[in-house]
């Protein structure tokens, strides 16, 4: 349908899962380090609690990636990325699968006992959470960076590395950002700790976009083809840049000011804009990552843009309904964590 094959969907699933798990590992590591700067008190416990929450995203991403990898052991399709038409050869894809399979197996075997340890001896697991996140990030960064292996660190290989690894800093980080925004909506305490991080997180997303552009520049003459898919992708990148300027600019400043003022409330108009801007960011990065994996899309520019608009409006509607009806007892969970002192024993 529309030139989409099943195995291309599986490749996307692996990329999506690794991006989510990698970003959760990255920001979980950052939060643990921020918590260690404060040896006691609310800030230390809050960042420890946030780091623990990101384990859910790590395990969700790992499950998706490992399931997709298991399917890929049987076959490897061709694919294109972000409107760029340089496609790995069969030998390169096969070499990458052979190179990453032992790491996937080791990662899968590592996840199971560590997940069990987090429930059996949570205090000991928490004391090693910094190492846990660091190891996972290193493993995931390697796995996501080798969608194809040319046999040497050539410009073509650097293109594959950058054009895949950026998803941790773009798509994955956007998902983490929205997750943090959602869980903090019912807690002024969390807003005061999370909102000041938004400018830094937004800069990391822009760095990820820069990595992507740099990887394309390495093989520009070979990779670029002025197809409807290419122009559609550049349109979405433009939407992301405009939307990002809103997120990183006036909206972020209002979020931080509202948290500092003690109210934590933006007002209906700005809260609506925040929900919409976050949904646009997630939908756009998801679209770029998803569409890029299909080499033979039969849709033209107008068809792609129409589907994108429909998905975007549907995502905004679902997001608004969810935020208006769902009340996660985050404050209660956090206060219980505070009362127990976190895992400080």
Automatic annotation (TrEMBL):
List where the protein spans the membrane: 12-33, 54-79, 99-117, 129-149, 161-183, 204-225, 231-251, 272-295, 301-322
- Name this protein carries in UniProt: Uncharacterized protein
UniProt keywords (A-Z) are: Membrane, Transmembrane, Transmembrane helix
From which source organism is this entry? Candidatus Kaiserbacteria bacterium CG10_big_fil_rev_8_21_14_0_10_59_10
Organism classification: Bacteria, Candidatus Kaiseribacteriota
């Amino acid at each position: 349908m529309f030139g989409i094959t099943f195995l291309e969907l599986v490749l996307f699933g692996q990329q999506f899962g690794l991006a989510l798990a990698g970003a959760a590992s990255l920001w979980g590591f950052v939060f643990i380090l921020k918590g260690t700067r404060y040896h006691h008190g609310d800030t230390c416990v809050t960042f420890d609690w946030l780091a623990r929450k990101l384990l859910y995203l790590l395990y969700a991403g790992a499950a998706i990636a490992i399931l997709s990898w298991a399917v890929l052991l049987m076959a490897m399709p061709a694919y294109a990325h972000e409107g760029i038409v340089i496609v790995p050869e069969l030998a390169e894809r096969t070499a990458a699968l052979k190179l990453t399979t032992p790491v996937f197996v080791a990662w899968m075997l590592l996840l199971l006992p560590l997940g069990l340890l987090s429930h059996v001896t949570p205090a000991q697991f928490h004391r090693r959470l910094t190492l846990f996140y660091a190891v996972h990030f290193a493993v995931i960064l390697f796995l996501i960076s080798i969608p194809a292996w040319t046999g040497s660190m050539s410009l073509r290989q650097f293109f594959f590395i950058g054009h895949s690894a950026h998803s941790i800093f773009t798509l994955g980080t956007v998902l983490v950002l929205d997750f943090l925004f959602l869980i903090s909506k019912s807690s002024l305490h969390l807003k005061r700790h999370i909102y000041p991080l938004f400018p830094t997180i937004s800069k990391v997303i822009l760095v990820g976009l820069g990595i992507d552009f740099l990887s394309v520049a390495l093989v520009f003459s070979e990779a670029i083809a002025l197809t409807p898919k290419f122009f559609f992708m550049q349109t979405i990148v433009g939407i992301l840049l405009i939307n990002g300027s809103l997120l990183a600019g006036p909206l972020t400043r209002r979020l931080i000011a509202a948290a500092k003022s003690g109210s934590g409330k933006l007002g209906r108009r700005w809260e609506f804009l925040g929900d919409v801007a976050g949904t646009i960011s997630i939908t756009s990065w998801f679209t770029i990552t998803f569409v890029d994996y299909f080499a033979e899309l039969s849709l033209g520019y107008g068809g792609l843009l129409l589907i994108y608009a429909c998905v975007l409006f549907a995502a905004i509607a679902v997001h608004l309904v969810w935020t208006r009806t769902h009340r996660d007892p985050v404050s209660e969970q956090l206060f219980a964590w505070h009362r127990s002192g976190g895992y400080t024993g």
